[in-house]
Amino acid sequence: MKTTGADDILGSLPPASLSDRAITYAIDVAKSVYRLILRRVERTADIVNSEYNLLNWQKVLSTKAWINARNLADFLAPPDSTERLRKVDNQILRIDGQKYYQYRIGALGDLIARHCGNGKQIVELGAGYGYNLFSLHLSHPDWILKGFDIAPNGIAAGREIADHFGLSDRISLDRIDLTNASDPNLPAIAGQVVFTYFCIEQIPYDVQKVIENIIAAKPKRVINIEPTTELLDLTLPRDLVSLVYIRSVDYQTQLFSTLDQLERQGRIRIVARERMPFAPSINNDGFLYCWEPT
To answer: Hey, which residues does 83 pair with through a beta bridge?
Structure first.
């Protein structure tokens, strides 16, 4: 199934050459092996907080790039001429950042719309500062979007962005700790269509706990979009690159096998399984499971 905007890109850019892919894969594997040997990380809550709340989201909040953007679309896909290998509609291309993220806006909207069961109110868990929510608004301006995250700087930035673009009535952000079964905001997802996007990757030691907490909150439907080692095809060079990368940064490796087991137990019903058709790099593209509690 073609994603929105893919034809324009695929018609103007050829697939990456074999030599380009081989060199890029080799460099990426070398970096991952270096991390495994000399800089191995255990992905604890403190590590995630330091990387995201205190670094990435703090930078977003302090630079306030949305103030100088002409509109929301320009904020989400600013000028970026850096070309790298990325996945567009299941093709590996060398493409600059701006073109990729312009394409990604429509591709994400297509993906969530295809799996949300005609829902018009969508909740993202682990939303950061709401990048995915703002992207979904451009594709589906009639949707009501709510994001939850544990990072105060991400939440603060997202609220400022929504206010700046006059979207506070359509997009809201609040705090949640998915590892805490007693979190006061978990009941807010009851009866809702919920998705995660490269969120559960950050909690490799709490995957089962988080899934149990989500099930207990009784959402209508859950769309998990996450990288993993479980579903990789190790006969493919790019999947070998992903395997070494995921191991080197200690991302989760058990989400989808956990969901498969829950389906065998009759506790959930999996309605879709697929691989993501787009990714910003060659080492960490995601898989999608769409499921419903029974």
So the answer is: 96
